[in-house]
C-alpha cells in the first residue's frame, strides 16, 4: 500500500486532483468524483455520458423521470466495477462509494496507481500490436471490396457472354455457309472467266479472219474486174467460183455471228458473276462482322481470364493477410496473456506484501500491547514507589515531630 503523500503526487500526474485530507477523511461525493475522473482517464467515458438516459429502459418504467439519476448511477457503477476488477480489486462494492473508509479508499487508490504504472510500462507494445491488427483488418476489408468488385465484373462478363452466345453460334453457322458458298462461287467464276477468255480470243481470231477475207474479197473483186475484160470464156466457172467464195464468206459470217452470240452470253454470265461478286463482298463484310464479334468474345475471354487471375491473386493476398492477422492476433493474445500473468504476479506480490504487512501489523500490535503492559507495570511500580515514598516521608515527619 502506498503512502498518502505518494498517492497524492501520483493522482496529480494522472490529472486527478486529490488532497491528503480527501484520503484520510473520504466522503461519498469526493470518492465518486475521483472515480469518475479515473474512468475518464483510463476508459474514456465521461460523466456526461453516464448522465445520458437509456431510453429503452426508461420506456419500461412507469415514472421514468424519477429514475433517471438512479439509472445513471447504476451505469456508472457497472463500468467502474469492471474497471476495478481489471485493476485487481475483486471485491469492489457499492459500499466503497456510499460508505467509504480511509484505509479501504487508500488501498483502492494504491491498486489503481499500480495499475496505471503497469499499463504505462506495457502500453507501447499493446498499442503497436492493436494498431497493426486494426491496419491489417482495414486492408483486409479493402481487398474484400476489390474482390467483390472483380467478382461482379466477372459475373457481368459471364452474363453478357451467355446472352451473346446464341447470336455468336448463329453467326458462326452463317459464316460457315457463306464460306462454302463463296468457295463454290469462286470456282464457278474461275471456270466462266476461262470460258469467257477463250470465247473472246476466238472472237478476235474470227474478226481478224473476217477482215482478212473481206480484204481478200475486195482484192478478188478488183482482180475479177481487171480480168473480166480479158477472160471471156467459161463465165459459168467464174460465176461458180465467185458463188463459192460468197458462200464461204457467208459461212464465215455465220460462224462470227455464233461467236458473237456466245460472247454476249458469256458477257451476261460475267455480269451475273459480277453481281454475285458484289453479294459475295457483302457476305464477306458480314463474315468480317462475325469475326469482329468472335474477336470481341475472345477479348472478353481474355479479360475474364485476367480478372480470374486478378481474383486469384487478390485471394492469395487475402489469405496472406489472414495469416498475418492470425499471427498478430496470436501476438496480441500472447501479450494479453503476458499482461494477465504479470497482473496475477503483481496481485500475488501485493497479497504477499499485504500478508506481511498484516503480520507485521499484528506483531506491532502485540509489541504495542506488551509495551503497554510494561508501561502499566512501570506506572504501577511508580505508583507503589511514590506511595511508599509518601509513607516514608510521612513516617519521617512523624518521627521528626516526636523527636
From TrEMBL:
Keyword list, A-Z: Cell cycle, Cell division, Centromere, Chromosome, Coiled coil, Kinetochore, Mitosis, Nucleus
Record domain Kinetochore protein Nuf2 N-terminal: where: 1-132
One Pfam family in the UniProt entry: Nuf2_DHR10-like
InterPro entries in the record: Kinetochore_Nuf2_N, Nuf2_DHR10-like, Nuf2_N_sf
Gene3D superfamilies: Ncd80 complex, Nuf2 subunit
A Gene Ontology BP annotation from the UniProt entry: cell division
Sections of the chain in a coiled coil: 126-230, 318-391
Lineage: superkingdom: Eukaryota
GO CC terms in record: Ndc80 complex; nucleus
Molecular function in Gene Ontology: protein-containing complex binding
Homology family: Belongs to the NUF2 family.
Name by which UniProt lists this protein: Uncharacterized protein
Organism whose genome encodes this protein: Rozella allomycis (strain CSF55)
